[in-house]
Every structure is written in structure tokens, then in C-alpha cells.
Amino acid sequence: MSEKEIKNLEALFDQRIARDEKIEPKDWMPEKYRKTHIRQISQHAHSEIVGMLPEGNWITRAPSMRRKVALLAKVQDEAGHGLYLYSACETLGISRDELFEQLHTGKAKYSSIFNYPTITWADIGAIGWLVDGAAIINQVPLCSTSYGPYARAMIRVCKEESFHQRQGYEIMMTLAGGSPEQKELAQDALNRWWWPSLMMLGPTDAESVHTEQSMKWKLKRKTNDELRQQFIDQTVPQADLIGLRIPDPDLKWNEETNHYDFGAIDWDEFWQVVKGHGPCNTERLSARIQAWEEGEWVRDAAVAYADKKEDKKLKKAI
Amino acid sequence: MKKNWPLWEVFVRSKNGLEHRHFGSLHAADADMALENARDVYTRRSEGVSIWVVPSKHITASNPEHHGELFEPAQDKVYRHPTFYNLPDEVKHM
Ligand SMILES: [Fe+2]
Ligand SMILES: [Fe+2]
Questions:
Q1: Are B24 and B33 in contact (CB under 8 A)?
Q2: Site from B7, B25, B60 to mutate, A interface, most A CB atoms within 10 angstroms
Q3: Which helix (H) or strand (E) holds B25?
Q4: Which of A22, A32, A41, A127 is disulfide-compatible with A148, CB 3.0–4.6 A?
């Protein structure tokens, strides 16, 4: 195809998206659209999968049967989210094995928030409330994104997320209403998860390289800073309600803007964790690699078994 | 050569009386495993009463580039729609 023809197709393509038409896997698409989507969808899938690790850490130690079944169901949902998203990503012409390869070699990223440790039970509450809460804010606008398979996956994901956040908040509420030690546990978890949760919504608009193109493709409908403000505005009253204190001395309601003003975010910390120097980067990645390598014989055995059954069927037919 | 688990398309009937609808896809070594995985991945909240799994490679899809030849001929056949026919308002039940 000549450069002019491609330009032409690109213009038509942009018009389709502007008209709110969806792009489906076999449709023509610019190479950059395909690559950007593979990057974002796979990063999203990897985050769901790696995100199971910090929470899985507490399944056997959940304080009651009620908490245990809820956490187990939540972690299972995250596995499901990863699978929906990997499938959506594969429709763009990349294989599941390549996707895993990119995760395991560090070529693909996952959300930095999962590189923080879960050291107390309250962390499970804080993750559900704050991390899933921030994820919902990120994900709801994606339900109407331009790439059909991604949008459909996000609709399923969003339907399932609401319980995640509610079970987390319920844990925090219960601890905050308990003994002084329990309340301290909840406050400590909020102190540690608050800032990473704000960072989870991405770099400030001034430093975000992808925003403009992503807006056009509806991979983004609001900027990172808008999403962050929305998260803060909705979360602060939730903390107030259960008597927990947001760990930000500069936080205060602004009558004029009708939003909360908040303190400076430590972006150095954010980039350190992104670059692999967070508290658990090595641990998370090695857990994934170990699971993949130690599962190899199971995957091979399943293929051998399937082949054998197929052979038997064929022999019977002859 | 290393053989990967093939891809399957999953169709779910959400309740009797409705058709099976495409829900997504997954990898599995064989049909039995595909059904079991589909149960876990796509029906964790009673979304279905029946599941079909089909190897993705057995699906033949129309090419979007042939959209014109395939679908445009239907666009100028307005006489296939009831509103094409002019009847007086007095005619009832039609
Ligand atoms: Fe999720
Ligand atoms: Fe979640």
C-alpha cells in the first residue's frame, strides 16, 4: 500500500471512531492502534494476574469463614479478568505465550501498586476499598472504548468489581469500629496505601505522553488528573464516615472548586517502583515465573492426553 | 515442537428460551477442559444454563473488506419492509 493510501485509510478509520463506531478484530487498523492496544490491554491483563499475589497471601489467614470465601471469590474474579483481557488482546494477533513471555522478561509492565506488600489483614481491606476503587474509576470509561473486544471485556470486569470494593470497605469499617488496636491496624493500612493508590491513576497530565492519542481512540475519556480528583473526592467522605484519617496534612475541601485540594505526590517513588525498585517487584515476578515453569509439565500432560484421546477416536473410526 | 493449548470460542445460553450468545474465548487442551474452564471463567455468577465451546480454528468469518458486496445489496430493498406500502389510515389491524 502506498503512503497516500494508508493516510486515506487512517482518516476513514479516525472518522469511524469519532462516530462512535466500534473497531472489530478483522477490521483494518493503523499499526500504531494495534500496537498501542496490545500494550495497554496486556498491561491491564498482567495487572489482574499479578494483582492476585498480594491478596492470595492472606487467603489461608483470613479471620473468618465469611472473609475467606469473599477473598477467595475476589481473587478468582481477578483471574477471570486477566483471562478476559488476554483473550481480547490475542484478537490483535499476539499469542498468549508471547504475552507471558513479555511479562516474565519484564518487557511488559503491570500496575505498580502490586509491588507493595500486604503485611497485615487490614491491607486486604485497604486494597479492596482503595485499589479496586481506583481501578473502577479507571475502568468504567473503558466500557465505551473504541476496540470492541476490549470494551466487551471491560463491561464484564466492571460488573464484577463493585463487590470487590464493597468487601474491602466492609473490612476497613469493621476494623475501624473494633478495639483500639484494630482501628490502628486500619489506619496504618490506609496510611500505607493512600499515596500509592493516587499514583495508580497514572502520571500527572503534564508528564503523561499518551494522553492525546489515547483520547482520540477512546482508550482514555478523562485525563489522569481528572480521574485522580474524582477518586479523592469520592474516597475522603468514605474515610470520614468510618473515622479514619487520610494521611495528607494538605487535604482540604475547596468551596470554590467544589473539590478537595491535596498535597504533593512523591513521583520519585512512583518512578522508582515502575523501574523495578519497589518493595516487591522481584518477589512478584519470580512468583509468576515459578508458577509458569512449574506448571509446564501439567500443560504438556494435558496436550498429550488430548492427543491420545483424539488418536483413539480416529482408530475407532477406521 | 512445543504444542500450545488451542483457542476455543465460548457461547452461553443465559436462560432457556434465549439463544446461545458469544461470551469470549479461552485456551484448553481439549473440549472437556474447554467446557470446564468456560464454566469457571464465564459463569461464576449464574450467567448461564448451557455452554457451547467450538475450536476457534473451525470458525469461518466473513471479511470486513467484502462488506460492500455482502451487505450493501440489502440496503436498497426497501420493499422488504412493511412501511414501503401505502395504505389508507382507515385500514385497521395491518
Ligand atoms: Fe479486576
Ligand atoms: Fe477487583
A1: no
A2: B25
A3: strand B20-27
A4: A22
Q: Which amino acid is at A64?
A: S
Q: Is the pTM of this model over 0.80?
A: yes
Q: What are phi and psi of A28, to 5 degrees?
A: -65, 140
What is the domain partition of chain B in residue ranges?
Answer: 7-80
Q: At what angle do helices B31-42 and A65-90 cross, to 10 degrees?
A: 120
Q: Considering only CA atoms, which of A290, A247, A267, A241 is closest in space to residue A104?
A: A290
B25-57 tens-digit pLDDT: 999 999 999 999 999 999 999 999 999 999 999
CA distances from A51 to A47, A82, A277, A313, B20 (A): 6, 10, 17, 41, 32
Q: Which helix (H) or strand (E) holds B52?
A: strand B50-55
* Closest Cβ–Cβ partner in B5, B41, B65 for A299: B5
Q: What kind of fold does domain B7-80 have according to CATH? A: Ubiquitin-like (UB roll) (3.10.20)
* Residue A58 pLDDT: 97
Asked whether the predicted pLDDT for residue B1 surpasses 60, the reply is no
